[in-house]
Amino acid sequence: MIQRSVEIQIPEAIYDRELLRRIAEKDHRAFKILVDRFQNKVLNLCFRLLDNPQNAEDVAQEVFFQVYKSSGKFRHDCLVSTWIYRIILNRCRNFNRDNRKFRWWGGLRREFQDVRRDDPVLTAAKADDPESAWNEHQTKELIWKAIASLPEKQKTMLILHKFEGHSYKEIAEVLDVSLPSVESCLHRAKINLQKKLAPYFLKGCRDRKF
Protein backbone atom coordinates (compact mmCIF):
# COMPACT_ATOMS: atom_id res chain seq x y z
CA MET A 1 0.00 0.00 0.00
CA ILE A 2 1.30 3.41 -0.90
CA GLN A 3 2.13 5.69 2.00
CA ARG A 4 1.87 9.47 1.94
CA SER A 5 4.92 10.66 3.86
CA VAL A 6 5.66 14.08 5.27
CA GLU A 7 8.61 14.50 2.92
CA ILE A 8 6.81 13.51 -0.28
CA GLN A 9 3.15 14.41 -0.57
CA ILE A 10 1.34 12.34 -3.18
CA PRO A 11 -1.51 14.34 -4.78
CA GLU A 12 -4.88 13.15 -3.54
CA ALA A 13 -6.14 12.41 -7.05
CA ILE A 14 -3.24 10.01 -7.68
CA TYR A 15 -3.51 8.50 -4.19
CA ASP A 16 -7.24 7.80 -4.61
CA ARG A 17 -6.71 6.22 -8.03
CA GLU A 18 -3.99 4.00 -6.62
CA LEU A 19 -6.33 2.94 -3.82
CA LEU A 20 -9.00 2.10 -6.38
CA ARG A 21 -6.50 0.10 -8.44
CA ARG A 22 -5.56 -1.90 -5.34
CA ILE A 23 -9.23 -2.44 -4.50
CA ALA A 24 -9.80 -3.86 -7.99
CA GLU A 25 -7.08 -6.38 -7.07
CA LYS A 26 -9.10 -7.33 -3.94
CA ASP A 27 -6.84 -5.45 -1.54
CA HIS A 28 -9.10 -5.18 1.52
CA ARG A 29 -6.75 -2.83 3.34
CA ALA A 30 -6.94 -0.37 0.46
CA PHE A 31 -10.73 -0.58 0.59
CA LYS A 32 -10.73 0.18 4.32
CA ILE A 33 -8.53 3.22 3.75
CA LEU A 34 -10.82 4.50 1.00
CA VAL A 35 -13.90 3.99 3.20
CA ASP A 36 -12.22 5.91 6.02
CA ARG A 37 -11.41 8.73 3.61
CA PHE A 38 -14.90 9.07 2.15
CA GLN A 39 -17.37 7.73 4.69
CA ASN A 40 -18.25 11.12 6.20
CA LYS A 41 -18.84 12.70 2.80
CA VAL A 42 -20.93 9.75 1.65
CA LEU A 43 -23.02 9.64 4.82
CA ASN A 44 -23.57 13.39 4.88
CA LEU A 45 -24.85 13.56 1.32
CA CYS A 46 -27.03 10.47 1.76
CA PHE A 47 -28.42 11.99 4.95
CA ARG A 48 -29.32 15.22 3.18
CA LEU A 49 -30.99 13.43 0.29
CA LEU A 50 -32.85 10.73 2.20
CA ASP A 51 -35.52 10.42 4.82
CA ASN A 52 -33.66 9.45 7.98
CA PRO A 53 -30.29 8.35 9.37
CA GLN A 54 -31.08 4.64 9.00
CA ASN A 55 -31.93 5.04 5.31
CA ALA A 56 -28.77 7.09 4.84
CA GLU A 57 -26.61 4.41 6.47
CA ASP A 58 -28.21 1.65 4.40
CA VAL A 59 -27.69 3.50 1.13
CA ALA A 60 -24.15 4.51 2.13
CA GLN A 61 -23.32 0.82 2.57
CA GLU A 62 -24.73 0.15 -0.90
CA VAL A 63 -22.55 2.95 -2.26
CA PHE A 64 -19.35 1.46 -0.85
CA PHE A 65 -20.37 -2.02 -1.98
CA GLN A 66 -20.75 -0.69 -5.52
CA VAL A 67 -17.40 1.11 -5.23
CA TYR A 68 -15.77 -2.19 -4.30
CA LYS A 69 -17.59 -4.16 -6.99
CA SER A 70 -17.05 -1.58 -9.75
CA SER A 71 -13.52 -0.44 -8.88
CA GLY A 72 -12.08 -2.25 -11.89
CA LYS A 73 -14.44 -0.35 -14.20
CA PHE A 74 -13.21 3.10 -13.19
CA ARG A 75 -12.28 4.82 -16.47
CA HIS A 76 -9.88 7.47 -15.09
CA ASP A 77 -11.81 10.21 -16.90
CA CYS A 78 -12.63 12.06 -13.67
CA LEU A 79 -11.61 12.27 -10.02
CA VAL A 80 -12.38 9.27 -7.84
CA SER A 81 -14.42 11.58 -5.60
CA THR A 82 -16.51 12.67 -8.59
CA TRP A 83 -17.10 9.03 -9.52
CA ILE A 84 -18.20 8.24 -5.96
CA TYR A 85 -20.57 11.23 -5.89
CA ARG A 86 -22.20 9.93 -9.07
CA ILE A 87 -22.75 6.58 -7.39
CA ILE A 88 -24.28 8.31 -4.35
CA LEU A 89 -26.72 10.30 -6.47
CA ASN A 90 -27.74 7.26 -8.49
CA ARG A 91 -28.30 5.17 -5.37
CA CYS A 92 -30.32 7.90 -3.68
CA ARG A 93 -32.36 8.42 -6.84
CA ASN A 94 -33.11 4.70 -6.97
CA PHE A 95 -34.10 4.71 -3.31
CA ASN A 96 -36.51 7.61 -3.85
CA ARG A 97 -38.00 5.91 -6.89
CA ASP A 98 -38.56 2.67 -4.98
CA ASN A 99 -40.00 4.47 -1.93
CA ARG A 100 -42.46 6.90 -3.47
CA LYS A 101 -44.38 7.47 -0.26
CA PHE A 102 -41.33 8.57 1.69
CA ARG A 103 -41.09 12.24 2.68
CA TRP A 104 -37.99 13.58 0.99
CA TRP A 105 -37.83 16.73 3.09
CA GLY A 106 -37.74 14.81 6.37
CA GLY A 107 -33.97 14.46 6.26
CA LEU A 108 -33.46 18.10 5.39
CA ARG A 109 -35.38 19.20 8.46
CA ARG A 110 -32.73 17.54 10.61
CA GLU A 111 -30.23 20.05 9.28
CA PHE A 112 -31.70 22.69 11.63
CA GLN A 113 -29.16 22.06 14.35
CA ASP A 114 -26.24 22.55 11.96
CA VAL A 115 -27.34 25.81 10.33
CA ARG A 116 -25.05 28.70 11.18
CA ARG A 117 -26.68 31.62 12.95
CA ASP A 118 -25.26 34.09 10.43
CA ASP A 119 -26.63 32.17 7.44
CA PRO A 120 -27.93 34.80 4.96
CA VAL A 121 -30.93 32.63 4.15
CA LEU A 122 -31.99 31.88 7.69
CA THR A 123 -31.87 35.06 9.77
CA ALA A 124 -31.12 33.83 13.26
CA ALA A 125 -33.11 34.79 16.31
CA LYS A 126 -31.44 35.57 19.61
CA ALA A 127 -31.26 32.60 21.94
CA ASP A 128 -32.78 34.58 24.81
CA ASP A 129 -35.86 35.50 22.77
CA PRO A 130 -38.27 32.50 22.72
CA GLU A 131 -40.66 34.15 20.28
CA SER A 132 -37.88 34.92 17.83
CA ALA A 133 -36.47 31.42 18.26
CA TRP A 134 -39.86 29.92 17.42
CA ASN A 135 -40.17 32.18 14.38
CA GLU A 136 -36.72 31.08 13.26
CA HIS A 137 -37.74 27.44 13.59
CA GLN A 138 -40.88 28.06 11.53
CA THR A 139 -38.85 29.90 8.90
CA LYS A 140 -36.48 26.96 8.53
CA GLU A 141 -39.42 24.56 8.22
CA LEU A 142 -40.84 26.61 5.36
CA ILE A 143 -37.51 26.83 3.56
CA TRP A 144 -36.75 23.10 3.82
CA LYS A 145 -40.23 22.24 2.56
CA ALA A 146 -39.75 24.64 -0.35
CA ILE A 147 -36.40 23.03 -1.21
CA ALA A 148 -37.96 19.57 -1.05
CA SER A 149 -40.71 20.57 -3.46
CA LEU A 150 -38.27 21.66 -6.17
CA PRO A 151 -37.80 19.48 -9.27
CA GLU A 152 -35.32 16.67 -8.63
CA LYS A 153 -32.44 18.18 -10.60
CA GLN A 154 -32.84 21.58 -8.95
CA LYS A 155 -32.95 20.00 -5.47
CA THR A 156 -29.84 17.97 -6.14
CA MET A 157 -27.83 20.88 -7.51
CA LEU A 158 -28.92 23.19 -4.71
CA ILE A 159 -27.86 20.68 -2.05
CA LEU A 160 -24.52 20.01 -3.76
CA HIS A 161 -23.84 23.74 -4.03
CA LYS A 162 -25.24 25.21 -0.81
CA PHE A 163 -24.81 22.34 1.64
CA GLU A 164 -21.96 20.27 0.19
CA GLY A 165 -19.94 23.29 -0.92
CA HIS A 166 -19.35 22.20 -4.52
CA SER A 167 -18.54 24.75 -7.20
CA TYR A 168 -20.60 24.99 -10.38
CA LYS A 169 -17.78 23.27 -12.27
CA GLU A 170 -17.65 20.38 -9.79
CA ILE A 171 -21.42 19.93 -9.98
CA ALA A 172 -21.20 19.82 -13.78
CA GLU A 173 -18.60 17.05 -13.53
CA VAL A 174 -20.55 15.03 -10.96
CA LEU A 175 -23.80 15.20 -12.92
CA ASP A 176 -22.06 14.99 -16.31
CA VAL A 177 -23.76 18.12 -17.64
CA SER A 178 -22.48 21.39 -19.08
CA LEU A 179 -21.50 24.35 -16.91
CA PRO A 180 -24.20 26.58 -18.49
CA SER A 181 -26.75 23.88 -17.62
CA VAL A 182 -25.73 24.04 -13.95
CA GLU A 183 -25.85 27.84 -13.94
CA SER A 184 -29.28 27.84 -15.55
CA CYS A 185 -30.68 25.14 -13.27
CA LEU A 186 -29.46 26.81 -10.07
CA HIS A 187 -30.81 30.14 -11.28
CA ARG A 188 -34.23 28.55 -11.81
CA ALA A 189 -34.01 26.89 -8.40
CA LYS A 190 -33.43 30.25 -6.71
CA ILE A 191 -36.31 31.85 -8.60
CA ASN A 192 -38.61 28.94 -7.74
CA LEU A 193 -37.65 29.18 -4.07
CA GLN A 194 -38.45 32.88 -4.05
CA LYS A 195 -41.85 32.21 -5.62
CA LYS A 196 -42.66 29.44 -3.16
CA LEU A 197 -41.61 31.52 -0.17
CA ALA A 198 -43.08 34.83 -1.34
CA PRO A 199 -46.51 34.25 0.30
CA TYR A 200 -44.78 33.79 3.66
CA PHE A 201 -42.18 36.53 3.47
CA LEU A 202 -44.17 38.98 1.37
CA LYS A 203 -42.15 41.94 0.12
CA GLY A 204 -39.01 40.90 1.98
CA CYS A 205 -38.71 37.64 0.11
CA ARG A 206 -37.28 39.08 -3.11
CA ASP A 207 -34.43 40.65 -1.20
CA ARG A 208 -33.32 37.34 0.31
CA LYS A 209 -30.32 35.59 -1.21
CA PHE A 210 -30.39 31.82 -1.68
Calculate the mean pLDDT score and round it: 79
How would you characterize the largest beta sheet?
A: none
CATH homologous superfamily placement of the largest domain: RNA polymerase sigma factor, region 2, helix turn helix motif
Question: Helices and strands: which structural class?
Answer: mainly alpha
The share of residues in extended strands comes to under 5%
Number of domains: 2
Number of separate helices: 9
Shape: elongated
What is the name of the CATH class of the largest domain?
Mainly Alpha
The proportion of residues forming helix, as a percent range, comes to 55-70%
Walk me through what this model shows.
This protein folds into 2 domains: 9-100, RNA polymerase sigma factor, region 2, helix turn helix motif (Rna Polymerase Sigma Factor, Chain: A, Orthogonal Bundle); 114-205, Arc Repressor Mutant, subunit A (Orthogonal Bundle), CATH 1.10.10.10. The protein is built from 9 helices and no strands. The chain is elongated, with a radius of gyration of 19 Å. It is mostly helical. Helices cover 66% and strands 0% of the residues. The protein has helices at 12-24, 28-49, 53-70, 80-98, 105-109, 130-148, 152-163, 168-175, 179-201.
Record keyword descriptors for this entry.
single chain, 210 residues, mainly alpha, Rna Polymerase Sigma Factor, Chain: A, Arc Repressor Mutant, subunit A, 9 helices
Helices and strands in order:
Elements: H1 12-24, H2 28-49, H3 53-70, H4 80-98, H5 105-109, H6 130-148, H7 152-163, H8 168-175, H9 179-201
Helix pairs in contact: 1-2, 2-3, 2-4, 3-4, 4-8, 6-9, 7-9, 8-9
